[in-house]
Design brief:
Layout: E1 14-15, H1 22-32, E2 36-42, H2 50-60, E3 67-73, E4 88-94, H3 103-118, E5 126-130, E6 148-152, H4 159-162, E7 181-189, H5 190-209, H6 218-228, E8 233-235
Parallel strand pairs: 1-8, 2-3, 2-5, 3-4, 6-8
Antiparallel strand pairs: 5-7, 6-7
Helix pairs in contact: 3-5, 5-6
Length: 245
């Protein structure tokens, strides 16, 4: 493709439809006998989205490969029986919700970091975090697999901007040439995800102790981390199209 940027200034690939062969990648992935994990949170009113998200993810996310879905929720009793593909497994993990809606995003990184250390590192090779209030409409395959993967935010992305490798909003001058990433879809190897979530949770805690919060909550901390630790693979906005703010 010549209409979009397919390589970052630090030579990481940017995945767009038409830039890869899924058949070739599937064959390589199957030889490695890997397991991928998906983490999502459904607390307070977001339990309403569970059935739609799980049905679409079960159908489209790494179809035909082993996937463990880890659903964190404060209302496990409201989850109806969900029919999973034979290669997929659903683990419902009860959590408590905070009094404010901001509490869930703020604590999400710490929760994931803790569970990577105590459980996930023994069960999966790669781990991805997705928001629950979406439905997948097309296949997301093993083209997303890499050590540290981020999705370019769609609300500030156009073909013209992509060609310029746009700067993250509010970034300092040394951030020029980098992208702004959505916190709704990111992931990587278990080891890389542990370092990312640990660093971001520490940043959130430091903000809380100092009496203020980042403008975009944990997404701001995610982008700060990825500014200092460049992703090894970027997913185009095709993978998570957000409504305009």
């Amino acid at each position: 493709r010549r209409d979009v940027l397919v390589l970052t200034p630090w030579l990481a690939p940017i995945v767009w439809e038409g830039t890869f062969s899924r058949d070739v990648l599937n064959a390589q992935y199957l030889q490695k006998n890997l397991v991928t994990g998906v983490v999502t949170f459904a607390v307070k009113k977001y339990w309403f989205f569970i059935e739609g998200f799980m049905a679409s993810a079960n159908k489209y996310f790494l179809a035909g490969h082993q996937v463990n879905f880890y659903l964190f929720t404060d209302c496990p009793e409201k989850i109806s029986h969900l029919q999973m593909a034979p290669e997929n497994h659903l683990f419902v993990i009860p959590v408590q919700s905070g009094p404010r809606w901001q509490d869930t995003p703020a604590s999400r990184m710490a929760t994931v970091s803790s569970y990577i250390q105590r459980q996930f590192q023994h069960e999966v090779d790669y781990l991805y975090c997705l928001d629950v209030d979406v439905q997948l409409l097309a296949h997301i395959g093993v083209e997303i697999i890499d050590a540290l993967v981020a999705t370019i935010s769609s609300w500030q992305s156009t073909p013209e901007q992509q060609g310029k490798a746009q700067e993250a909003p509010g970034a300092s001058p040394e951030g020029a040439g980098h992208f702004h990433y959505t916190a709704s879809f990111y992931g990587g190897s278990v080891a890389e995800m542990y370092e990312l979530t640990r660093a971001c949770s520490e940043g959130v805690l430091e903000d809380t102790e100092n009496g203020f919060g980042a403008r975009w909550h944990h997404e701001s901390h995610l982008n700060r981390y990825l500014l200092l630790h460049k992703p090894t693979r970027l997913l185009s906005p095709e993978y998570y199209w957000e409504p305009e703010l």
